[in-house]
Description:
The chain is built from eight helices and two strands; from the N terminus they run αααααααββα. With about 200 residues, it is mainly α. Strand 1 (about 170) and strand 2 (about 175-180) form a beta hairpin.
Amino acid sequence: MKPELKQRVITALVLVPLVVWCIFLAPDAWAFRAFAAAIVGVAAWEWTAMMGWRSPPARVGYAVLVLALLGLLLAFPLTQPFMLLVFGSAVLFWLVAHRLVRAYPDNADGWANPPVLFALGLLLLVPAWLGLTQLHAQGAGWLMYLLLLVWGADTGAYFAGRALGRNKLAPAVSPGKTVEGFLGGLALTMALAVAVALWRGLD
């Protein structure tokens, strides 16, 4: 087994049971919120590396800021207009991000700098936590379904890319990604979606 694949398998064996437990068996909603906050806190730490930060206190400070914003969200009633505002802004952000990535690296001077990345991290991480907790509140099965789609896309892309990858997808952004890997991830995701739809239809 190749080292990269071995690392992925070990990570899955460790994390998947923990994730499944937190989704389905957490004692209450607050336990899952805390679990999701821990994930976002780690993501905030990793985001500071993308900003080029090297000072551990500064990196911890950014993660604490993100977690404080999550706590602030809990202090306000999550009304439907508020949720529409947050998630609508997140969708708009991803549309803009798509355009920025497509033009990379020609436009990198305008946004690939620490101050802009500081704000972008907040726009990524805070709505992500809110989305996870709100989806979990609608039913643990829905959140598990979302994670299955994400894992399916990653797994399909990895194996198809390793076996068939020839044509680079976006070499300036991620040199290892290929068109064949993208299609493999898409195919496995569609297969999972159809399987779940058929299973749900039998209930």
